[in-house]
Every structure is written in C-alpha cells, then in structure tokens.
Amino acid sequence: MRLAVRNVLKLRGYEIAEAGDGPAALEMAREARPDLVLLDMRLPGMDGIEVLAGLKKIDESVPVVMITGYGHIQSAVDVMKLGASEYLQKPFENAQLVETVKRFVTGPQAKCVPPAQRGEAAGAVKAPEPAPKQPVAAAVQAPEPAAPRRSPLYALAASLILLASSFVIYRQVSGNTADYYREYPGVAANISSLVWAEGKLLAGDWLAQSVYRYSADKDGLHLEETFPLDKTHISGLAAAGDTLYVADSWKKTIEARKIAPGLPLIRSFPAPGKVSTLFYDGEYLWTCDSEGNAVLRRPDSELTPSVSFKLPEKPDQLYKDKDYLWTAVSSTGKIYRHTLDDGLPLDGVFTLKTLSQGSPLSAFTWRDGRLWLARDGVGIISEVGTAELVKEK
To answer: Over the chain, what is the mean pLDDT?
Structure first.
C-alpha cells in the first residue's frame, strides 16, 4: 500500500516519507513538521485514530487525510469529527489520490518527504528535483494563501489490507407496526447529522460541507434545497425555531444560522472541545464533544451553559424525547438509552437488526415513533420501527 502511494506521488514531483507504524509516524512528525499526512485506519501497534490524536497534539493545524476501507468498523465520520481534513475510501484511483493531495499541497513541484519506511525498507526517499531547481522551502506550499508552513508531505500507510465487500439490504415493510422498514435511496452518502425542522428533514454532509433539505411523502424523499457551507466540517445539527445550530468539531465552533435561503450566519460561538453532536429539546441546546462531555446550554446570545455531565460511551450522536436520552456511537453501531433521571442511568444498549457491513451508522433521529438512520458511504436513509432495535442482554 505504501509502495503504491509513494510511487504515484513521486512520479508527480512529491517527496514522500513513510512509516510502518504509529510510533514511528509520530516521531517523524515531531522532528520535521509535514505539510500533509496520509494516514491509514489500520496500523500495527496503534490504530489510525490513536495516531490522528497524537498528530493533533503535535500540530493541531496539520491536515490529515484518512485512508479507510469498507471492511473497517470505524466510521469515516468519526475520524472527521476527531479532526481529519478529508478521507479516501479504498479502493481508490490514482487520480483521486493526486487530486486529494493537491487540495492541501499546491504546485507541481511541491515536496513530500518520507523518513523511515517499514523495518525491512528503512530510509528516506526524495523525488528528483524538477528543472529548474528550486529550494525546498520555496517549493512547499501550505493550503493557505500565506507563505509555506512546513517542510515535507508524509505518507503514512499500513501494509496491504484485505478489503471486505460492502452490501446494502433493500426491503420495504409497509404499515405502522414495530416492524416497519423503508429505505429512501438517492440521498447524500456522507451524512453526519439528521434533524427534522418544520416537517422537513435536514441532513448535514461532512464531505460536501453542505446541508440538504428534504421533503418526505409516500413517494420518498425529495431534495428541495442545498445549502453549501464552505469550510464548515459539519459534525452536528440542531433546529430551534428558525435557527439552525451547526457544530464544527474541526474548528471547535458552534454556528447559529438562520433557516432561510443560503442559511446566513448569525453568529459563531467557540466551543471548548470537539463538539460531535447537537440536539435542541425545546428548552436547551444539548452539546456533546468527542470525550463524552455533555453540556446543556440556553439558546441565548451567549449559548450560556446551564448543566454539564459526562456520558461514558462518548457518543457522536444524541436525541432526547420525553422519557429517554438516546445516544449512538458510529464506530460500534450501538445505540444507548438513558433514563431521564439524576445521573442519566443507562437503561439499555441496542444493536440494529439490519446490518450493513462496512457502512457504519453515521446519523439518527426519531420522528413519530420511528427511527431515521443514515450510514456512511451509502446514499440511503432508512425509516424503521422499534423492532429494528435489538436489546443486548
């Protein structure tokens, strides 16, 4: 895998550095700050999530492109919420790799360095200098229009991985029973949040950095409007009247936007952590970060904190009804139910009856006693009855 990535980028004038495991990658990042990191999800010793967290501690601003496979249980949505800038899904074409790198490292002579490769292939590999020669500092450009930031581009990838095939189950059960199941194809495939607002379904797409508004009828879901939110990595949505709150875990902000053409920005609030999910219960805006720190905030001009607590499952999605707090973790696909009591005791842990291998649960919400689900990488939203939830013993 690393050999293939290295060869494709070297032929285009980049200088590549490689690491066969997480500790080696982090050591490289400390010694020579990269312009871009290509990081596989599966690595020996430390997985990609752990390495991503370590990279962000070394340099919060370094862009990281995660390389994922359908066979991995971890959701690409999760890693975006943890701070990744982009992701590539295996198998990908060479052109996809090159175009992705170009978004962050500009110029045909941009450099990508590789320090240590895997144990049996240690050493640095440098691309030949194009003519006329230019200093590395002049050739390396950061994604910002300002002067170059760092030296090399590091390609960090695991050894070859066997990929599992993904599949989607298409079925429909009519009626109003607990067994109700319906799928709505043709929707966005990278949904990180779902919320109903005034009879319309709003879906946040973290990859396209857009919010979609759908109407629903007996014929399915129909796209009514697309709201591009340039440079906003959508990790959570919450609707409060005519205001839509948008969480961006990468920038550590919560934006208040008016639900109107263009979703104009009202105000941006700094968030202390990487807020991964939002929910408005009619009185409070619930926020929760990647460490499970939840805060109830008043939807006033300051988003004033009122109550705070911690959820042990560290959810990246939540929903509150009159009886329960529902949370979900994308990487496991599990849904947790907490009783609305002091301490929010755990009342049940559920899995979904309909499995979709390699397509993790990326968003959910409730409406009229039915659960609405989205899975990462699949352009389908499912509407299901309560029988879809299988309680663990």
So the answer is: 79
